[in-house]
């Protein structure tokens, strides 16, 4: 597989020559808790990595990261990557065939004409934009989530914040870092689609919707046109500028890094996740299950109507993507597995957490297709899709339901996918077809269990494998290599490039939905939807 730690046929000497000659690409992604750098070879193989841990800060009732923390984290992760390269291959890299920057999407970075930050960076985590998001969603007839950049900007206008009159440029975190490295005020279309709605035909901001916003803003505030404040939109494979001398010194204060290196369009973490799971073609998608759970489906055409359950973004190539984002994922499953592990210990049985988790999951395969009439809600937190501001984990059964380990285990897994399935029902109602969904996350480690039940929940084939193991830093490094390939004359589309060059030998297993499981989950989901009244009551009285 091309994503092995190193290509089995390659020698250390060959890799050393690739590094010395710059026949490699570098990707750096700024996540919410870690900044990771990843170096890949010409076949996509990860060669080295470096990371820096960081945390957001709650300042003046808003979540933020300082630009000083951004700079320090970028330099530390890069220095650790260089050290890893030197320790492994005996050479220090000074140049690359391409560089890519990715970061958590959305948020608000506002600068004046001199490039000064006007207010601390407001991250995707902030929820102070409710009034703006609601007004813009109605105005545009387009779902504008709280975290989108335009919601932050318009909320600042509604709140009469003094800095608004000084704004000359708005961008995201990836756009800011790219700007520091290249001097270019550009953004990949996927990340741009989290700033303002994108027209998938134009692969650019929707001009019709921009004019509506400009007209509304003019009634409240004298401002340049919004498009003049936003970064220029680029699609995957386009030249997004080159590393400047000042940019090289900013990333590598040792002075070893050479300028002039090609950079690909900066992207958001959603886009790099799509690349890392090879889910960039229409009728494909990916599901990520962790503390939260979300699905992204690449659409063949625009949706007919606006749905609050669905966020619309794009792939790095500009194809429209519907995103179902649920606040609650696998935490409740983990809690129950812990309880069963404690019970095993009380019986004098020694078992690792993986063994307990595996036994619990495998039991689910023997459960009734509809879960035996049991219900489980994994709501540790509120869930916007179902209209709940708070959550209360619940397990509910009726006198005529069948309570046993197999049904209980199946119900808990069903519960982890319940809200996601409600959002996917909305997509199905729009006639959206899915040929394959790639799933990743800890719940899929027990072979064939969560994968099979997810296939039932979304009524589509589900694939799992190790193709997403390197994450977004690897994904943006791949996008940098794609930009290099295009610069060297390649005509391949991004899906063609991924299928033919990166994932051709990927180790992936696919499970098709079982008809009995699909019918059983549909029964479960009907009861789950009706039982939301119980969950809502629990939040009110407990």
Write the layout of secondary structure elements.
Layout lengths: L11 H10 L3 E6 L3 E7 L5 E8 L3 E3 L2 E3 L2 H23 L8 E6 L5 E3 L18 H11 L8 H10 L10 E3 L1 H10 L3 E3 H4 L5 E2 L4 E2 L1 H12 L7 H4 L2 E3 L10 H7 L15 E2 H8 L7 E6 L3 E6 L12 E4 L5 E7 L4 H16 L6 H12 L10 E3 L16 E3 L8 H25 L6 E5 L9 H9 L3 E4 L5 H17 L6 H9 L5 E4 L3 H16 L1 H10 L1
Helix pairs in contact: 3-4, 10-15, 11-12, 12-13, 13-14, 13-17, 14-17
Concise structural overview:
The chain is α/β, with parallel strands linked by helices and 542 residues long. Helix content is 39%, strand content 17%.
Q: Which characteristics define this entry?
A:
542 residues, Nucleotidyltransferase, domain 5, 3 domains, 5-stranded mixed β-sheet, 18 helices, 39% helix, disordered N terminus
What is the C-alpha radius of gyration, as a whole number of Å? 24 Å
Portion of residues in beta strands equals: 15-25%
CATH topology of the largest domain: Nucleotidyltransferase, domain 5
Termini gap: 51 Å
| CATH C-level label of the largest domain | Alpha Beta
Which CATH architecture of the largest domain would you pick?
2-Layer Sandwich
């Amino acid at each position: 597989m091309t994503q092995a730690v190193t290509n089995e046929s390659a020698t250390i000497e060959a890799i050393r020559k690739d590094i010395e000659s710059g026949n490699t690409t570098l990707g750096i992604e700024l996540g919410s808790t870690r900044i990771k750098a990843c170096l890949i070879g010409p076949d996509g193989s990860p060669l080295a990595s470096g990371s820096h841990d960081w945390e957001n800060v709650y300042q003046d009732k808003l979540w933020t990261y300082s630009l000083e923390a951004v700079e320090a984290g970028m330099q530390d992760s890069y220095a650790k990557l260089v050290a890893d390269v030197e320790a492994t291959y005996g050479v220090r890299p000074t140049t690359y065939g391409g560089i890519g920057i990715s970061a958590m999407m959305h948020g608000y970075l506002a600068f004046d004409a001199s490039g000064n930050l006007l207010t601390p960076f407001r991250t995707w985590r902030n929820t102070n934009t409710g009034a703006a998001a609601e007004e813009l969603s109605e105005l545009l007839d387009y779902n504008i989530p709280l975290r989108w950049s335009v919601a932050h900007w318009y909320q600042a206008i509604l709140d009469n914040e003094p800095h608004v009159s000084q704004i000359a440029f708005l961008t995201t975190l990836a756009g800011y870092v790219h700007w520091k490295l290249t001097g270019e005020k550009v953004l990949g279309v996927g990340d741009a689609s989290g700033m303002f709605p994108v027209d998938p035909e134009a692969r650019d901001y929707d001009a019709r919707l921009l004019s509506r916003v400009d007209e509304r803003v003019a009634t409240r505030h004298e401002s340049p046109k919004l498009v003049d404040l936003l970064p220029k939109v680029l699609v995957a494979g386009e030249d997004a500028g080159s590393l400047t001398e000042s940019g090289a010194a900013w990333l590598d204060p040792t002075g070893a890094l050479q300028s002039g290196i090609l950079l690909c369009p900066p992207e958001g973490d959603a886009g790099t996740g799509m690349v890392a799971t090879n889910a960039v073609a229409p009728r494909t998608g990916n599901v990520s299950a962790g503390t939260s759970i979300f699905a992204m489906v690449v659409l063949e055409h625009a949706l007919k109507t606006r749905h609050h359950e669905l966020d619309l973004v794009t792939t790095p190539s500009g194809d429209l993507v519907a995103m179902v984002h649920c606040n609650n994922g696998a935490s409740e499953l983990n809690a129950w597995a812990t309880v069963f592990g404690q019970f095993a210990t009380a019986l004098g049985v020694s078992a690792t957490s993986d063994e307990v988790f595996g036994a619990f999951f495998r039991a689910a395969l023997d459960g009734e297709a509809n879960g035996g009439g049991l219900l489980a809600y994994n709501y540790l937190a509120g869930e916007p899709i179902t209209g709940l501001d708070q959550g209360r984990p619940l397990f509910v059964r009726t006198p005529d339901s069948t309570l046993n380990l197999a049904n209980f285990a199946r119900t808990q897994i069903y519960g982890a996918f319940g809200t996601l399935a409600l959002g996917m029902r909305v997509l199905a109602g729009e006639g959206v077809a899915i040929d394959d969904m790639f799933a990743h996350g800890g719940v899929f480690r027990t072979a064939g269990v969560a994968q099979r039940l997810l296939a039932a929940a979304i009524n589509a084939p589900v694939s799992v494998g190790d193709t997403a193991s390197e994450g977004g830093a690897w994904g943006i490094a791949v996008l940098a290599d794609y930009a290099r390939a295009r610069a060297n004359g390649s005509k391949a589309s991004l899906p063609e490039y991924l299928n033919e060059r990166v994932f051709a030998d990927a180790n992936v297993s696919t499970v098709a939905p079982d008809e009995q499981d699909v019918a059983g989950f549909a029964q479960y989901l009907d009861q789950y939807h009706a039982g939301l009244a119980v969950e809502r009551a629990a939040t009110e009285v407990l």
